[in-house]
Amino acid sequence: MTVDDVNRQRLLLDNDVLRTFVAIAETLSFSGAARSVSRTSSAVSMQIKKLEEQLGSALFLRAARTISLTRQGETLLAYARTMLMLSNEAVSRLGYPQLTGVVRLGVPFDISERIFPRILKDLSEAYPGIAIDVVIDTSDQLVKRIDEQQLDLALTCNVGNPSALRGEVIGTEKLVWAGARQGCAFQQYPLPIATHEDGCIWRAAALEQLGRLGQTYRFAYLSQRTAVQCAAVVSDLAVAPLPCSYVTDEMRVLGAEEGFEELGSLDVRLVGKSNATELIGIVADGIRRLLKEATEASPE
Is the pTM of the predicted complex or chain greater than 0.85? Predict the structure, then answer.
């Protein structure tokens, strides 16, 4: 047995590094994982390089535009997920030994697709004794459900006129017009747009601007799933109003040069019922923290 072999037997795996490793394995992207763990891409690469050196095994197969797990990486992934789960559970049990119950949470369509799955997973890991029941609806309907005592907490979205709305602003993101990277859909007449159906604030902001500019348009794609709208944009079949975090390398932001104006900022608000319990307050604090981490890690 060599000295290196002995050192590997004494190796203690760092949860922070394992969390980065799991993020890469789940996103199959170093840049995507960097946003998820709120680190730079170079820092993530250094963490994995050091981990591979410590283990003496390659964990990822790197190609020109793709990565995949090696056999050793797949083995480590199973252990890493278990170790992180046990670590989070231990911290939660010791920090909040009696923390159990159900919190009813409302989330608008766009957040439910985009950043909430990660937040919900992190909340579940941090507070395994709390069950979170989720309702997906428009922001207006979620506030109504709060007033009717059907929900304990709700995340809502708003573009413009923030002083007239309820709740605490816990995140802000730019709303932009997006088109295909090398596309020309924005030059078509009438302008083909991809958006949600009625009730979506992105749609309302976009149509208000187009009406003010006298721009003729047609609804090329109507869907509650933002993934469909993004696919239409990437395929150069339409343009769409999107939060900045949705704009991928296959898209570009359309500005004054293409005849578009800024759409403003998207506010994410946390609305709670008046008689909130300690349990609801703890979940609300977790949402504030996790949403802040998610939006800070998103590209502007």
Answer: no
